[in-house]
Amino acid sequence: MAVTPLILVTNPAAPSHNTGDGHPESSDRLHAIMDVLRGAEFADIPRFEAPSATTADLRLAHSDDHIMAVENAIPDDALAIIGGDTVLSPDSLAAALRGVGGGLLAVQQVMQGQARRAFVLTRPPGHHAGRNRISGFCLFNTIAIAALAARAKYGAARVAIVDFDVHHGDGTQDIVWNQQDVFFSSLHQEGIYPHTGLLTDRGAFNTILNIPLPAGTSGTDFLARITNDIIPRLDLFRPDIILVSAGFDAHVMDPLGGLALTTEDYRDIMRLLCDTADRLCDGRLVAVLEGGYNLSALAESVKVCVAVMADIRSAQ
User: Fold this and answer.
1) Choice among 128, 167, 168, 188 that is catalytic
2) Is 195 a catalytic residue?
3) Which secondary-structure segment (H or E) carries 86?
4) CA–CA gap between residue 307 and residue 40 (Å, rounded)
5) What is the pLDDT of residues 203-216, one digit of tens each?
6) What is the pTM of this model?
7) Greatest CA separation found in the chain?
8) Using CA atoms, how far apart are residues 292 and 269, in angstroms rounded to an integer?
9) Whether the Cβ atoms of residue 65 and residue 55 lie closer than 8 Å to each other
10) pLDDT tens digit sequence for 276-310
């Protein structure tokens, strides 16, 4: 049976995660993305609705105290604010659980050979959520849970995570710090939230590679760091699957970042990562949406990445 080039995993509960008026991480983000993916060139891409993750799934990356803290923070009505920037509404837990479930479904489909690649279109994002910490719009760390599930449930001996969000994936680093068989790399703007991600942070087994970048870094320089620094480490690590924390707030138009990537740069970055997955792990690659807060830049950047992942040349 032929393997599907790409599946999209959506989260039907995501719009009910209400962050209030004016918050950058709103349901408008997914609406903008889904609008650009309605074109005829994307009509044949299979789409799956994310199931809800279980407590056992969450325990792969989070403590029981953290899981309980998230549950207890969910308001009965109105909105609640955690840490000054993470807004919760009564349905936020359902959205977060299905976001995690989407990552798990994507990894299952790819590891079991039903699909070559997957893109999980979900919110809230996850890469700032640590083992014991709600932070930066994030409740549970979807990418870290997916990585650990790939090993624990689906036979991956080694898993690589590449995070190209403009903000360092501090929660992911926290969770995988002691994992010998998970490689984590992050390209991010230095000197901004969450003020982590130093070059000297290497993890307990030298499986963490941080690449902090100065404000104004171009897409050409960004891509060069992937080519010259990350790809050689992936070659040495030989992952069985590559997971991507796909944040699009390094775009030059994004209001929360200060890097200078363009939509075309994201196309080239995703093509390089897909080519690397083809070479190292039979194409197995799962991307999970993280940041990106200019709606048009986010939507168009996701569009070109989806086209690359699905091998649709006409949309690239």
Assistant:
1) 128
2) no
3) strand 86-88
4) 12
5) 999 999 999 999 99
6) 0.97
7) 50
8) 16
9) no
10) 999 999 999 999 999 999 999 999 999 999 999 99
